[in-house]
Amino acid sequence: MTDVTIPEDYLPIVDGLLWKKILKEGSGDSPTIKSNVNVHYIGTLFTNGDKFDSSRDRNSPFNFKLGVGQVIKGWDEGVATMKIGELAELVCAPEYAYGAQGSPPKIPGNSTLKFEVELLGFQESADNPTAKLTLAKKKKDQGNASFKAGENGPASQAYKDGADLLKDMAGATPEQLQEAGPLRLALLSNLAAAYLKLNENGKAAEACLQALEIQNDHVKVTYRLAQAYLGLSEFEDAKKIAQRGLEIAPGDATFTSLLNVIASKQAAFKKKEKAAYSKMFS
């Protein structure tokens, strides 16, 4: 138990030991025990606000398996209440943090801690082909719901989790492999669409290239790859892929229109580049 007074806007998860305040609502399901969760966090001493750790400062999210003791008890129980995209503050009494011993030199003994935690995503445990297929379908449905709601960050995480599940299908039957290929293709295609919405063009291109390894004449994926290269200002690659799209789907107006956009943007880019050089040497 803690002697520190906890403000009323923090709701108890475990009475006298763990509290939570939601700063931004998330969506979808909460992670279950043994899920691999992906979070960003900032850890501070509750009494004076001194920061002792931050994944954001390292620009590197933290991953752990939920509910198996890899992290402090406050995290195991607090993160289990969160949804994807949720940003919350967890206040942990010493018994749910580092106890009487603390974690010197930054965390004294018997410290009550506050963590700002954002649940970026999670992947439920799946250790056989049947479980992987079931969970990948669930991730696709979650991603679709988020995408339709305009929540492209959670959508991209759900699609990525689903696609990653199907990377290794060791022990799968021929029927399961036949099901896994099209499902992974759909997840990667949708992932590319979500990344394009987020202006993450490099990641979108990577997702498309993985999808085209499964089916190299997929029209939507080819179009999205051309869009991604255009977003990266890689005009020649964008043009090449759009022309490939016309070979796959002759006369498709979307590729013809995209080629016009590429030509226009490339001309504007060259004009701007030329002006910059002229200014530099004038």
Automatic annotation (TrEMBL):
Xref: PROSITE patterns: FKBP_PPIASE (PS50059), TPR (PS50005)
Reaction it catalyzes: [protein]-peptidylproline (omega=180) = [protein]-peptidylproline (omega=0)
Keyword Isomerase recorded: yes
E.C. numbers: 5.2.1.8
All copies of domain PPIase FKBP-type, residue ranges: 34-123
UniProt-recorded Gene Ontology molecular function terms: peptidyl-prolyl cis-trans isomerase activity
Entry keywords, A to Z: Isomerase, Repeat, Rotamase, TPR repeat
Residue ranges of TPR repeats: 219-252
SMART domains for this protein: TPR
Keyword field contains Ligase: no
PANTHER family according to UniProt: PEPTIDYLPROLYL ISOMERASE
Protein name, as recorded: peptidylprolyl isomerase
Species of origin: Linnemannia schmuckeri
Taxonomic lineage: Eukaryota, Fungi, Fungi incertae sedis, Mucoromycota, Mortierellomycotina
